[in-house]
Design a protein that fits this description.
Layout lengths: L16 H7 L11 E4 L4 E4 L2 H7 L6
Antiparallel strand pairs: 1-2
Length: 61
């Protein structure tokens, strides 16, 4: 999950989804806080390579 202060909108007030899709969950692509869902604990943990691996997601290369 990515937490943003404000949504990036087009001039017609639509979300800029293409930019979000391109950035994905690569923490180097943006400055927003990033969290990973911990299914066992039922909560979110701050992003780290270890947390990402524990959740079963591949790391960014």
């Amino acid at each position: 999950m990515r937490v943003s202060a404000a949504a990036d909108l087009t001039t017609t007030y639509k979300l800029r989804k293409v930019d979000l899709q391109r950035q994905g969950y690569d923490p180097r692509a943006f400055d927003d806080p990033l969290f990973v869902r911990d299914e066992k604990a039922g909560t979110y943990r701050p992003y780290s390579e270890e947390v990402l691996r524990d959740a079963g997601f591949p790391p960014f290369v």
